[in-house]
Amino acid sequence: MGALLGLALVAACEPRVELKPGDPELVRAARQIFDTRCANCHGPHGRGDGPAGRGLSPRPRDFGDPAWQASVDDDRLRRVIVGGGAAVGLSAHMQANPDLEGSPVLVGELIRLVRACAPGQDSKGMSERAGENARAAPSP
Ligand code: HEC
């Protein structure tokens, strides 16, 4: 038992760069995770219109829906993102991301991205940033 506990502690203490909220590198890391892992279903703006998302039933919701935003707390979003849809009784198509469990600050930043899809949210949100990317794209 003691040995088991010790092992768990060693694993938890492995050097891992845990960045602070608002750190540009953290913002970039979260954005990259969203683009590579989430956007395929949720769409680049979180509208639920990613290429894979459109074929699902139920489809991923529009994160821009203010009524939905108001109905969920961050704790639930954290459980969905880390544990997957099945963890909260949603579709299992919403995959778990167990590797993020040890990175609460990074998950917090992902939640901030999801929140930023709501209308009138902070201008550093994903719609705004995706817009920047879209404008930057055509240049060679
Ligand atoms: C394979 C497709 C797919 C991928 C990839 C995916 N999701 Fe989802 N996600 C879904 C679907 C489908 C739902 C809706 C489930 C339902 O309503 O039953 C969902 C629901 C959610 C919800 C809403 C939960 C609620 O309360 O309604 C959040 C937040 C979420 N996903 C975040 C993410 C994040 C962040 C990522 C990337 C780390 C991600 N998802 C990756 C398909 C996906």
UniProtKB/TrEMBL annotation:
Cytochrome c domain span: 25-118
Keyword Repressor belongs to the record: no
Keywords: Heme, Iron, Metal-binding
UniProt superkingdom: Bacteria
Region of interest: Disordered: 41-70, 118-140
InterPro entries: Cyt_c-like_dom (IPR009056), Cyt_c-like_dom_sf (IPR036909)
Protein's name in the database: C-type cytochrome
